[in-house]
Amino acid sequence: RSIDASKPVKKAVEVYYWENNQFPDHDSDIHLSSLGLIKSDHVKNISLMLAGEIVITYDTSDISWASNRSMPSNDLTGKTLILVPQFIDNTIVWDECTKGSAPKRSRDYKCSKHL
Question: What is the pTM of this model?
Fold first, then answer.
């Protein structure tokens, strides 16, 4: 899962927050290039945006997608999932449901609102 690939980045954002009382705004704030990122199939890039938001960009171009007009393609090439950190009740919570261009069906089950 792409979320697993982002674990070192999430940890670095959380540490930065606790040390600076704010979320980082740049890759260099958390030394992203030096983090031991977990390899994950079909993750093209992981980067950091303002307020600690982690952007995961996909590349699924190596998968042959069957053409079925009744179902949307699952090709995620160029699509993004944005993990948004929020400080709630003295803890950092990650929202993966509201931002990015990846369809809801390609996100965590909780994003479909079927809890």
Answer: 0.84
